[in-house]
Automatic annotation (TrEMBL):
Organism: Pyxidicoccus fallax
CDD domains found in the cross-reference section: Ras_like_GTPase (cd00882)
Sequence ranges of Low complexity compositional bias: 204-213
Residue numbers spanned by region Disordered: 194-213, 221-245
Superkingdom assignment: Bacteria
InterPro entries: Gliding_Motility_GTPase, P-loop_NTPase
Listed name of the protein: GTP-binding protein
Amino acid sequence: MSSVNLMAREVAAKIVFYGPGLSGKTTTLRKIYETVRPAHRGEMMSIATEGDRTLFFDFLPVKVERVGDCSVRLALYTVPGQVFYNATRKLVLQGADGVVFVADSQPEAMDANRESLANLEENLFEHGIRLDRFPLVMQWNKRDLEGVLPVDVLRKELNPRGVPEFETAAANGRGVLDTLKAITRLVIKDLRAKRIVPPPRPTTPGAGPQPAGLEAQLTQHLHGRQPPPPGSQQPTVTFGGGPAPALATAPVPRVAPVAVVPPPVQVSPVSATQTGPKLLGAASALASGDMFDHARAAEAAFMAGDYATCVTACTDAIRRALAFAGEGSLAQQAYLLRVDGADLLRFQGLATQQLLRVDDAAFALYVLMQVFVRLNAVGLPNGE
Ligand SMILES: Nc1nc2c(ncn2[C@@H]2O[C@H](COP(=O)(O)OP(=O)(O)O)[C@@H](O)[C@H]2O)c(=O)[nH]1
Ligand SMILES: [Mg+2]
């Protein structure tokens, strides 16, 4: 999904936090959200079930200005770890420029770690990508817990290729920004090698202040917020007071997404000051004007399991939203707003599909959110 605006020398890259359920992906993204300066990140969107499990994905945009002489916009995503959400994982993985594999360091999670890594390899392969050539960073998470596996065991099992690895405790934020910096460096290097990102401009001596390098910029922009002093921290995230729930180590049957009856969904933009999850959907939270009602209808239908109605409501909302881009076909409007063309095509294909599944509806909501985000980015609709 990387895109480059050569005039603005702006690079957009997509980074996916992958790993088994409960390994700490959502917590990692929340910590990044809390740490990065507000000016350098957008709102974090989470689509979670009532039990706080990621149903579709979490999404957090982060901006790093002037890496060399480019700006970098990062779109950070997590995937749902549960085995039966594989279609969703594939979808989120589509167009990824790099992956952070978040492993749970506890011995009882090793089977789930291995299974998830194999699943990553398989899903990337289906997108025509080989994991062993792909920008990848390993995040050994939950290092704060007692009895975790030694790092060399994790390395031997999960990182034979020797990609950069970091010990983290996402629950208290330790190591998460170092992980993010490492994957950003790898992604930029990879995009430069593929000549997607132009090499740094040659600089002339005495030409004024040099743009800072990647490392300095990442550090400056990402570490903008001091961690709150001890005692004033957000309620510590625990496993409900008890020991960490053991991950399912028994083989879990691969259930086709169509058979999944999704639990009630809470979609909520997460904010640092928020006390409880808002029952406002991620799409409607981004909507303005009469698009709000359509977005609400789409979310309500999704929650009720009525996927056909959800897709129809998304179609209505997307048409209205794209109309703000001016006259023309949907494709032209989408192009002008820089909505992903492949996504739009796939979305339009849903209209002719007989059976709509939970992933189709989730995808429709995803495209709708993308359109709203793009509209917001260009300041439309204005004057309301
Ligand atoms: N002790 C500890 N708990 C963690 C850590 N990271 C996440 N958790 C907890 O593990 C559980 C699952 O985390 P979550 O981020 O939802 O996992 P996800 O399924 O990968 O998104 C939550 O209860 C978190 O509070 C960590 O580094 N240390
Ligand atoms: Mg999650």
